[in-house]
Amino acid sequence: MSGARMRVISLETHDIRFPTSAELDGSDAMNPDPDYSAAYVVLRTDEDEKGHGFAFTIGRGNDVQTAAIRALEGHIVDRDCSDLGAVYQDLIGDSQLRWLGPEKGVMHMAISAVMNALWDLRARREGKPLWLLLAEMSPEEIVSLVDFRYITDALTPAEALEILRAAEPGRAGRIAALREHGYPAYTTSPGWLGYDDDKLRRLCKEALDEGFSQIKLKVGADLDDDIRRMRIAREVCGDGYPIAIDANQRWDVSDAIRWVQALAEFGPWWVEEPTSPDDVLGHAAIARAVAPVPVATGEHVQNRIVFKQLLQSEAISYLQLDAARVGGVNENIAILLLAAKFGVPVCPHAGGVGLCELVQHLAMFDFVSVSGSKEGRVIEYIDHLHEHFVDPVVIRDGGYVAPEAAGFSSAMRPASLAAFTYPWGQYWTSAVAQSSPAAEARRTSAVTHPPVLKGRSA
Known about the structure:
The chain is an alpha/beta fold. It has helices at 62-70, 73-76, 84-93, 95-98, 105-126, 130-135, 139-144, 157-167, 171-181, 197-209, 223-237, 253-263, 280-290, 304-312, 328-342, 355-370, 414-420, 431-434, 439-448; strands spanning 7-17, 37-45, 50-57, 79-80, 183-191, 215-218, 243-246, 268-272, 295-297, 318-319, 379-381, 395-396, 399-400. Strands 5, 6, 7, 8, 9, 10, 11, 12 and 13 form a nine-stranded mixed sheet that branches. Helix 12 (253-263) links the parallel strand 7 and strand 8 (268-272). The longest helix has 22 residues, at 105-126. Its EC number is 4.2.1.68.
């Protein structure tokens, strides 16, 4: 995609961390005490425009992620970045940085942050929300953004064009429907593993009252505990109400099969991340053994190649792409097209810091221009940290309201950057932060691993 010249003159990074471990928000069987964090990047152009992006982490290591983003500075600064297909190819093609992956891990997440910031910049420049910017592009423009290397045995450029062209006739009507009715959501807020039974009960009831058509519970630490919590959720929500379960990679293949079979009496809507995200054959074996309980995964899947194999091996019934782990918008378009080719619904991973804000755009683009359907599709929603964004998500009657503000909804409020920059922000130097149970561990980490607070400005 190319357009008017878009010369980037500086790249800033910020290590932003929120103390979610204090209330056990985000706690699960694999991640008991996360501090939801953003390795945040701001790009500026010679016309004083800004683009915002980030990689999501859960605390320590955010400094490493921020440094990885800065390592890409030479590919972006003092360059016309209007052709986002070409920029993406250059970022994933740097042979020395690629060696650290290839196309996975910390460097790939850094590419995602930078590419998403460029897309935010492009959408702001054109005065459109990102979902609409993408939805109004031609099939040829969309296909030009995708790197088809390693996936042509599953999806060719010609097949991608066919999928996109098939969706063209109803695009205008779906845009109108999206603006009128929004996009269905499910909530994980009741299900964090650290919550007590009373809180679980209360939050399940609130989810029903707020119109959510599905909830999700974290599982995997203790089977008896999971059976008790699923029983509580089923009692509150009623028979037939969709309750998904999420193990966050906790199990070996045999343990996953045994555990899901033990919970099958409660009718799980799906089991999410039952084992290592890299174990394609393991997911396929689990899917066969626990059927008819569907398997879902994707938030930690590293790239389009692993998604391709999950689809080819019929290992998943729901694909859960993440807006900030693979190579940004470009690679997520490839993943959406792969899912459409195999007829698997996309139910994106969200929550975290700003992932709800980002992923709504990808799901809405999928509805308008790729799959053409909302059937079997929901976007995850978690009700925290939205107040730190300039254009936070809006939920109405259990669904996402289509954003209308220009951009990718990724810009954080300046006051939040000032307060939660780690470790010298206003919150982290406050008495509350200094006296928290994890304060000593955080201080030790900060001394051992000095943070990267800001990148150079050209």
